Amino acid sequence: MNPSLRKLWFRLIYWFRPPWDTGIPAPELVRTVADLPPGRAIDIGCGTGTNLRYLAERRWQVAGIDFAPRAIARARDRLKSFPHTLLVADATKLAALDLPGPFDLALDMGCFHSLAPEGRASYAEGLAKWMRRGSTYLLYAWLPSAPGGPAGIPRAEIQRCFQPAFRLANFELGAGRPSAWYFFVRS
Q1: Which of 174, 42, 171 is nearest to 101 (CA)?
Q2: What is the C-alpha separation between 108 and 131, in angstroms, rounded?
Q3: pLDDT tens, position by position, 77-97
Q4: Any idea where the domains of the chain sit in the sequence?
Q5: Looking at domain 37-186, which CATH architecture does it have?
């Protein structure tokens, strides 16, 4: 799908309930933050803010970006009783955003793998700018699949995009589809 149609599709789908918007925080996120003291967290491609709400309930200072205005409006409703920063923004322009960083935790559940290849380097550079050394970055992304399936990004390419600013600490295959969780540490 060309980038303009993809943007339009995401903007339209948030007028309804996207199939990925379960209202349940990601188990990988829950498991990761169980041993971390609260700090500052950013969710890139935050959608309606489910994961941000989970973090805010645990005293994290939260920020989120998404390029779909309706998603950000729903996230604002979900986070109305917690301090938060939410921006309608392009993830490939992270470096230029006015964010309340540096961050101790970053989460991306499906934004990076939706970017055009030419935007991935600027995303990774912008993320590195905002992350504290030793901080954690959780990335969920599709892996390449059979012809006709969702486009994905090979593991080696993802690692290459984030090196040398990030070190891959763990990798877990996703359940039910060709996908994976990447657990990075800011070098």
Answers
A1: 42
A2: 13
A3: 999 999 999 999 999 999 999
A4: 37-186
A5: 3-Layer(aba) Sandwich (3.40)
